[in-house]
Every structure is written in structure tokens, then in C-alpha cells.
Amino acid sequence: MLSFSMIMTVIVAHLLALISPGPDFLLVVRSAIRNTRRKALGVALGIAFANGFYIGLCILGVGTLIAHSVFLMIGLKLFGGLFLIYVAYHALQAKPSDYQFIAQKQSGMDNKKTPTFWQEFILGVVSGLSNPKNIIFYLSLFSVVLTPNVNTKITALLGVWMTFIVFAWDSLIILFLSQQKIRKVFSKVAFYFDKFAGVFLGFIGLKLVHSAIRN
């Protein structure tokens, strides 16, 4: 039986990893300031779906096979690196005039040529799946609780809970940044934030590609 202290250890470790800034966090912030609230929630749902997928694989034991397969991990790193470089390229290519619409009200942004909800959802899914650290993290986390004497229902509920928390956290970020006062402030620094995000994501992408090629 899984002890309460062990469950809390897993939950706290997951929360600490979740609130630490990373590629997914930057994509959520970018989507929140560039789209309407409803469209931006597509990214949050996509990231949660990808995390839930990896959590499910780890519970089923497939995550161990992926993490220990050199070929699959190299492919995952290469795909993730190229994806982040692609996102970074578009962020660095943007001009100051591309951010003028951010200060507008949510309703006034619907007429802009912004991505659809499902396009943002796919972006979130690809971002979550292309990060090799996600499956390694969940595999490490579940290795603590996945023992023969642990009830599978408790493990499954823990997986559902973590997937929900991922979506809830990203949604809270989007809801906060969708406030009109916050958007007006962000509209003044969005150009520079995008450049920072582009450099950061590009750096991580290049490191992943380099790691894949080196391996």
C-alpha cells in the first residue's frame, strides 16, 4: 500500500518541477499574450494531454523501454531540438509592429490572423511530447511508487491528478495574463520577451540536437 507521505512526496516533487520555467512555460506565456483566452487554453490542454500520455506510458511500463532505448531517445531529442529551433526562429523573426494588437481587448483580437484553438492544441502536444525530460522525469517519479504491492487504482488516480494539475497550472497562467491591465503592461515588453524566449528556446533546441548527434 502506498503511504500518505510517499504520495505527498510525489505530488510536491511534481509541483516543484511544474512551476519551474521551461520550454512549455514559455510557450504558454507566448500563447497567452498573443491569442484570446479561449485559443490560448488550447496550448494548456495540449501540454496536459502530452504529459498525460507520458504518465500513462510510465504506468504501463512502456516509459522504461523508451528511456532505455538509445535509438528512441536520440530521435526524441532530435525531434524536440528541431521543434524548439523552429519556434525560436519565428520568435526572433517577429517585428515590433507584430505586437501592437496585444493591448486590444479580447473580443477585438478574434479578427486577427491568430492561430486557432486546435492549432494551439497541436503546438502544446508537440511541445510536451518533444521534450525528452518529461518522460525521464515521470519515469523517475513513478519508479518511487511503482512497486508490486502498490494498488494500480491509486497509481492511476495519481496519474490523472498530475495531468489535471498540469492543465490547471497552465490555465491559471493564461487567465492571469489575459487580464486587460496585465496585457497592456505586457504589450510594452512583449517584443523583448519574445526575443528572450526565442534565444532561450533556441539554445535548448541546439543543445538537444547536439546531444542527439553526439550520441
At a glance:
The protein is mainly alpha-helical.
Give an overview of the whole structure.
- The protein has helices at residues 4-19, 23-34, 37-60, 62-67, 70-93, 117-129, 132-145, 152-177, 180-214.
- It is an all-alpha fold and 215 residues long.
- The chain has one domain (23-214).
- α2 (23-34) runs antiparallel to α3 and α3 packs antiparallel against α8 (152-177).
- The protein is globular, with a radius of gyration of 18 Å.
Architecture blueprint of SSEs:
Elements: H1 4-19, H2 23-34, H3 37-60, H4 62-67, H5 70-93, H6 117-129, H7 132-145, H8 152-177, H9 180-214
Helix pairs in contact: 1-7, 1-8, 2-3, 2-6, 2-8, 2-9, 3-6, 3-7, 3-8, 5-9
Annotation keywords:
215 residues, mainly alpha
Largest sheet: none
Helix and strand run: HHHHHHHHH
Give the number of helices.
9
The fraction of residues assigned to DSSP E strands is under 5%
Tally the structural domains. 1
Q: What percent of the residues sit in helical stretches (DSSP H or I)?
A: over 70%
Report mean pLDDT, rounded to a whole number: 82
